[in-house]
Amino acid sequence: MNQNQFHFKEIFELLNKELKKYNKPILSQSKWDRVIHTPFTTLISCILSLRTKDEVTEQASIRLLEKYNTPLKIVKLSSNQIQELIYPVGFYKVKAQRIKDISKILIKDYNSKVPVDFNELLKLKGVGRKTANIVMVYGHKKNGFIPIDTHCHKIPNRIGWIKTKTPEETERKLKKILPKMYWDDFNRLFVKFGQTICVPISPFCSMCPIDKYCKKVSVTRSR
Predict the structure, then answer these.
(1) Of 3.40.50.2300, 1.10.1670.10, 3.30.360.10, 3.40.50.720, which CATH number belongs to 3-23+145-213?
(2) What are the φ and ψ backbone dihedral angles of 208, each rounded to 5 degrees?
(3) Checking CA distances to 31, which of 112, 163, 213, 215 falls within 20 to 30 Å?
(4) CA–CA distance, 68 with 162 (Å, rounded to integer)
């Protein structure tokens, strides 16, 4: 396979340069000074972020994790107390109970630690591949993982790198074609790219730094 046809080098260089003007995604922001950055806080923040806007996730995470940043501290809270701290994240009642349940499991089965094994992470209720990948990359600082959210799934298809129907398929295909040197930057860049320029509906192609490398698959209207 000729990797030059995908223009990985050019695209990653351009995105790195262009996206510096924007803040990083919530889970990799350095301004979280009040929250201790651990695999556990990464896991809980990711759970809170599902179906929730970044700004809401950030504030809820800080309210909860600034003080209650370990499984042992979380289990001392009632579900109602957790709900009050994380409101108004989406599905806050479900997430409050899930956060408490996961904390109990971590204490009971993993010595209060977040598993470093990817498959063990998937055993935790409510933890899918996206969350597990994020914990591995941003929490455990491990290489070899590519977190795939909606932007990371749709944009490679739009560019024309791959042709996939699910995030899981996208993860598998990208691991086959994307050089490992780009794996660590992929989620950070493509999430922000999808939030600011390559938005799902009517993307800003006129201001896109990688426009000439994009096949614009399924793009019917742009700005």
Answers:
(1) 1.10.1670.10
(2) -80, 125
(3) 112
(4) 42
How do residues 202-222 score in pLDDT, each as one tens digit?
A: 999 999 999 999 999 999 999
Q: Which residues in the chain are classed under CATH 1.10.340.30? A: 26-139
d(CA 161, CA 180): 15
Distance of CA 223 to the CA centre of its chain: 26
For residue range 79-93, list pLDDT tens digits in order: 999 999 999 999 999
Those residues with Cβ within 8 angstroms of residue 16's Cβ, 6 or more apart along the chain or in another chain: 185, 189
CA atoms of 82 and 63, how far apart (whole Å): 10
